[in-house]
Queue: 4 jobs
Job 1
Amino acid sequence: MSATPQVMSAAPLFDLAGLDALFAPRSIAVVGASSDTARIGGIPLDYLRRFGYAGRLHPVNPRGGVVQGLPAHARLSDIGAPVDLAVVAVPQAQVAGVLDDAATAGVRAMVLFSSGYAEIDAAGAAAQQALAARARAAGIRLLGPNCLGLIRPSHRVHATFAPAVNAGQVAPGRIGLISQSGAFGIYAYALARERGLGLSLWATTGNEADVQLADGLAWLADDPETEVIMAYMEGCRDGPRLRAA
């Protein structure tokens, strides 16, 4: 038997191209967008506008009109242009309808802040499994639910409602950080900012209905902007996947 270590290729297990739409989106829609920049649906839109996101930005609100100075659409499918990432800030009861609309609109990835899933009870866990299956069938990569979202500093992507971002931005850098815990993730973000450490990506995975910590590790390993990868893991449900990453 050869003593040579076996190197596992991540390529067959990880949809790295699909994760590009999540971690480096060229267009973003905020579903549940609000003109109130203190509300969960107003914060990410405010960050994206204020911090200079250069891609196409679409507020989505059932009332339409104008939200934070931008024309709003009642549904994702009304936008009429490609959307890489939908940042979803609506109550759990509305998420299934948003996912169906996202599938119709050809959305490629979603960040789902909404809670009320596997972190609650067995019924929530079943709803989460059904949500993941529908997203998978539609070809939509799903971060969350019950997550704080992500930040890609070099692209000025702030798909998060974390209030700590208001205290100051982390500079673009070469460290990628993936955390299963939102609380630890935002604490690490604050430490990086205070110590002058630049980040290539900051992401929290929440309940991991689809995108796991392992997916983030595999994507960062292939990212030319990243030299150091850090992770905070509380548990692992898929050992082979983590090992491959």
Job 2
Amino acid sequence: MNRRMIIILILLLIWGGPKALGILTDWLWFTDLGFAGVYRTRLLAQVTLFILGAAGGLGLVWGSAVLATRLSRQAISAPHLLSGLLNERQFAVTVAGGSLLVGLMLAGGFSGQWDQMLRFLRPTAFDAADPLFGRDIAFFVFALPVYRFLQGWLLTAVLLALLAGIGVYAFRLVLPQLPTK
């Protein structure tokens, strides 16, 4: 194994080891109490939301960075402008790695809302209407928190995608133009 693989393996063990032990401990506890199905539902919800959040966040941020790369490539008339900092392959790997990191951070926030999402998917009617809006109170307990979370998550993802695009433009168009000593 080369050094990179060893470093990646050590980082995975440092990050994933305690997480795996926590999952195993919870699984054993829920199984001992006879609620393994409940814990399985929670894990399935968390994994599903993590995948959805990662796909959405990565798609937005990486799409913005790729679009900014293509548009900045059209704006650069001389191909030698980028050669002093990074070549195209290194730049593409850096953009993909940064987008993946941001997508994973967004996915962590998305999967942390598993309990609200499960309540949203299986609401129970209160059979009492709100006096101001005339809606069942269950909407304010089960649906509104999810809508607010999705609004905030999407706002964060779009702002991070905007920052990724600005970063690509700055790196490709502004930094090569700066005078060097």
Job 3
Amino acid sequence: IAALAMLFDALIIITTSILSGVLYNLVAFGRTGNIEQLGGFAAVVAVFFFILVKNGELYTLRELLNLKSQLFRITTKWLGVFLFITAIGFTAKAGDLFSRGATLSFATSGLAALIGARLFWRMYLANSLTVHRFSGRKVILIAEQARADDEGLTETLLRHGL
């Protein structure tokens, strides 16, 4: 699931960068703009974003199911990446190479798309666990004695694919 979620996020980042940049440039200037530059900028954003998200372990099953945590952490990491890249661009005096409008539209549409992806993952994974889509592994549970409060243990194990 983690690799699939990362691939999905990469596609979202690249697609939203190119689409928002092209749409902004069409509306503002009547031309599409430099698509290679938009894609390159998206690649840089994606690398920094994945470093932060992977280190924060946001692609684990437990974390993907925790929607509140995902929304907060994805938002802070996404904004942190854009603040960092803006600081680098300002320091390197490369701000005139990038359209502020295209960058802002990418930042907002990219964040909205990533939040939408987190909503999708939450619903998909919760539903999959409910209908035992990940079932199949056999386990043996060895315990000293059965307790009356462990009645839901079998259902919990089944739901998590065991």
Job 4
Amino acid sequence: SEAVTSATLCVRFNQDADDYKDVNVRRALVMAVSNEIVLELGYNDRGTVAENHHVCPIHPEYAELPAPEHNPARAREMIAAAGMADHEFELISIDDAWQAATCDSVAAQVRDAGIRVKRTLLPGSTFWNDWTKYPWSATEWNMRPLGVQVLALAYRTGEAWNESAFSNAEFDSLMAEAMAIADADERRVVMKRIQEIMQEEGVMIQPYWRSLYRHFDPKVKGAEMHPTFEHHHYKWWIDA
């Protein structure tokens, strides 16, 4: 059973770290990566391509934007202009099959652009101790029904789960406005600018939205995959 979801993996930059204070460095690393290739190599094409702003087309207030630019040559030029042509960036991920493969794909593309990258894998028992502190790392985010929900949790100034240390006054103001609009069509007008800010600020490489799967015997009924991993056991039954 397949569920189309807004679950994802965010390969985010911590803007408190010296390496990622410069927006041009962040944007260059984003530009070096094709999200389509990451989906193919990191998650076996079992999902849909994302746009580096953490709002999914299945969210009711999603606003359609032009596809992000993929330009490895320009990325290399921007890194050189920032004085980091010889710098080695480090990308950290949990030692989990699909998350590690996704980050391997990101690192390979950045290297192909002529930018040095070191890959570090950590076991979960170590990774989750400091997940909000790594300079450049990948974090799994599961689905929330509305686009504003994860944005409020993870990107507003000072939020406990703001792993990117993102702080933008215009973003915060627009989020307060969006959170007060009940109608999704009206909220979409504000969301468009929110999504643009996320892209302009190079907050993260967010390559894809995951499809999720559940396997069950044909005689088991009502056990289809739920997009947020819920188990509705009262719906399950066996055709004997």
